[in-house]
Amino acid sequence: MWPWRNWEVAWNMKCSDNQSSIAVVLIHGFGACKEHWRYNQPELGKSAPCFAIDLIGFGDSSQPKARLINEPLGNKNSFAYNFDNWGAQVADFCLEVVQRPVLLVGNSIGGVVALRASQLLKKNCCGVVLVGCATRALDDKRLDEQPAWVRWTRPYLKSMVRQKWLSGNLFRNASSQGVIKRVLQQAYPSGKNINNSLIKILQKPSKRSGAPEAFHGFINLFDDHLAPQLMRNLEVPVDLIWGEKDPWEPVNEAKKWMKSISCIRSLEIISDVGHCPHDEDPEAVNSLLIRIIQQAT
């Protein structure tokens, strides 16, 4: 464990070549944890020290009480689950623990966290890889892209999800083994690597007493950073890796980013996989990541 502010952060490292001038830091997505990189970290560790970290609220890291926007500080140990705080967590981890330039690799919301951390790290970050990055289509700043009924009901939705009883019930349902399996079948369209080990990896943190707090905090995150905004003035190269059949983050969004954002260096689309290509087709993703690591050293 690494002590950060009032909390503890869980992490691990794989390394068989400590001569590399850089390190790799892997950042999981929502509801996942450091073990979601189970097929990547050992292979990447052969090229550079490879760290995986649990964001606050997930995995084995602290799960403090959620503090929503406009709520008073109250409990000094409460935590605002947002990209500024997660980005600061990752940036501080890189400076205090990793202590060398880093290549940040993030899946889903971990991609947005990686971009925010890269901004904070500046010269201490040598690149970012976004693996099925969260496009955050439901953010308030993108509300005009939504159907009229979504815009009209947004105030009601915000009011409802602030209620702990509702978010608690939603969490209990979402964290059941059956629901996790059904979500994985949607996220992994090929069905590859959906196994009991993965279900246990994802369900275990949800059994901890503080687990509903991260869920409550995140589903109330309606106005926060968007990846294109974070990349607007980014000075390090960004590489995109996307699942061709991602059910939640359309590959066309990645293609649009590739054409319009200057810091993006490459876009690789992995055929027949979905939102977590690093776990569904690790061989293909590992090959791409090793090439990017070699470019960065």
Describe the structure.
The protein is of the alpha/beta class and 297 residues long. It has a single domain (2-296), classed as 3-Layer(aba) Sandwich (Rossmann fold), CATH 3.40.50. The protein is built from twelve helices and nine strands. It has helices at residues 41-44, 83-98, 109-121, 148-161, 164-174, 177-187, 196-203, 211-219, 227-231, 251-260, 277-280, 282-296; strands at residues 2-4, 7-9, 11-14, 23-27, 50-53, 102-107, 125-131, 238-243, 264-270. The strands form two sheets. Strands 3-5-4-6-7-8-9 form a seven-stranded mixed beta sheet, with helices on both faces. A two-stranded antiparallel sheet has the order 1-2. β4 (23-27), α1 (41-44) and β5 form a beta-alpha-beta unit. α5 packs across α8 (211-219). It is globular and about 50 Å long. The mean pLDDT is 92.
Broad shape: globular
Report how far apart the termini are: 28 Å
Q: Return the CATH class.
A: Alpha Beta
Number of strands: 9
Strand order of the largest sheet: 3-5-4-6-7-8-9
Q: Helicity, in percent? A: 40-55%
Segments where pLDDT lies below 50 for 5+ residues?
A: none
Find the CATH superfamily. Alpha/Beta hydrolase fold, catalytic domain
Strand content: 15-25%
Whole-number total of structural domains: 1
